TrEMBL record:
Residue span(s) of domain Disease resistance protein Roq1-like winged-helix: 216-287
Species this protein is from: Juglans regia
Keywords: Leucine-rich repeat, Repeat
Coiled-coil segments: none
Biological processes annotated in GO: defense response
Protein name per its UniProtKB record: TMV resistance protein N-like
Lineage per the UniProt record: Eukaryota, Viridiplantae, Streptophyta, Embryophyta, Tracheophyta
Classification via Pfam families: NB-ARC, WHD_ROQ1
């Protein structure tokens, strides 16, 4: 999961123990660097850091790998490879256990646990960064917002609301702390109302990196969970629904878990509140504000508006109305006619078929 503090932890460890090694390197932003400049640039940085070889003329990835491999042999090194998202990146940097000298320390940060397992790491060698507890979160937020370890008088309850909203995510605490650094109660209250409607782009952009790396069916599973299935029983309910949609949930859910996008606790599916909000925002953005073209509908008012106006299109894939409408709705029987790709429909209400009319009553 992005923003959980993996890079910060790795940097702290590196700074603390690097003096114990004659040779050390911190390769930051591997995902971004390899996308922009290619794997050869990563190899050149590693050679420059470890062997002071700034003039190395690497023609291709294989030659760079061989040069690194021979240089690393029998050397005791400290190496941090940060934000890896593809196994080719580790291969290019010659990350193999038997290529390093005794006592070497290699730290890899990634959003994808499967990459580490592919490299032969055991479960007890993998550390999953955790959200901050309330006390830690309040302290971090206070340092960013107030430059001290506790909120100012008059801002304690508002700060606690921020802590609840961020659910311990360090990135969100830092971003919001900087944003709310001017102690103005009216501004804070307004900002909180706005955040509940629309999360800050800086936070969403970081979280969305993991989503963008998913395959299409995995993205659909994630969005279904965000819109419909958070807190639902996986085996008894959600698994069979996703299987009926031909989404391969066994492998799909496993990948989402490995990327820390969802968890299963006591048999139920969960995700961080900000990840759920990100999912909602993605769905809304795809439709550009047109409810009739929104792939998933989950809010009562939105669903009722689409049904009353008969504005549904073939882009709608799912409608879940968990609470019955407060008013009687007289719907034409053709209300679902244009929703040719509708695969999931759940409406908690009583239906009465009256001739050519469909009536929805409070149950």
């Amino acid at each position: 999961m992005g923003g959980i503090g993996k890079t910060t932890l790795a940097r702290a460890v590196y700074d603390k123990i690097s003096s114990q090694f004659k040779v050390s390197s911190f390769i930051a932003n591997v995902r971004e660097t390899s996308t922009q400049g290619g794997l050869v640039n990563l190899q050149k940085q590693l050679l420059a850091d470890l062997f002071k070889d700034k003039s190395s003329d690497i023609k291709d990835v294989d030659r760079g790998k061989n040069k690194i491999k021979h240089g690393l042999r029998h050397r005791r090194v400290l190496l941090v490879v940060d934000d890896v998202d593809q196994t080719q990146q580790l291969e290019a940097l010659a990350i193999e256990r038997d290529w390093f000298g005794g006592g070497s320390v290699i730290i890899i940060t990634t959003r994808d646990k499967h990459l580490l397992i592919e490299r032969g790491l055991a479960e007890d060698e993998i550390y999953r960064a955790k959200e901050l507890d309330d006390d830690e979160a309040l302290q971090l937020f206070s340092w960013k917002a107030f430059k001290k370890d506790l909120p100012l008088e008059g801002f304690v309850e508002l700060s606690k609301e921020i802590i609840h909203y961020t659910n311990g995510l360090p990135l969100a605490l830092e971003v919001l702390g900087r944003f709310l650094c001017h102690p103005n109660v009216v501004f804070w209250e307004s900002a909180l109302r706005s955040l509940r409607q629309d999360p800050m782009k800086e936070i969403v952009d970081i979280l969305k990196i993991s989503f963008d790396g998913l395959q299409e069916k995995q993205q659909k599973i994630f969005l279904d969970i965000a819109c419909y299935f958070k807190g639902e029983k996986y085996v008894d309910r959600v698994k069979s629904i996703l299987e009926s949609c031909e989404y391969e949930p066994i492998s799909g859910i496993d990948i989402l878990i490995s990327k820390s996008l969802v968890t299963i606790s006591e048999g139920r599916l969960w995700m961080h509140d900000l990840l759920q909000e990100m999912g909602h925002k993605i769905v809304r953005h795809q439709s550009q504000g047109d409810l009739g073209r929104q792939t998933r509908l989950w809010l009562s008012n939105d669903i009722i508006r689409v049904l009353k106006n008969n504005s549904g299109t073939n882009l709608i894939e799912g409608i879940v109305l968990n609470s019955p409408p407060q008013e009687e709705l007289n719907l034409n029987s053709s209300v679902f006619l244009e929703m040719k790709n509708l695969r999931l429909l759940k409406i908690t209400a009583t239906f009465s078929n009256c001739g050519r009319e469909l009536r929805v009553y409070t149950s």
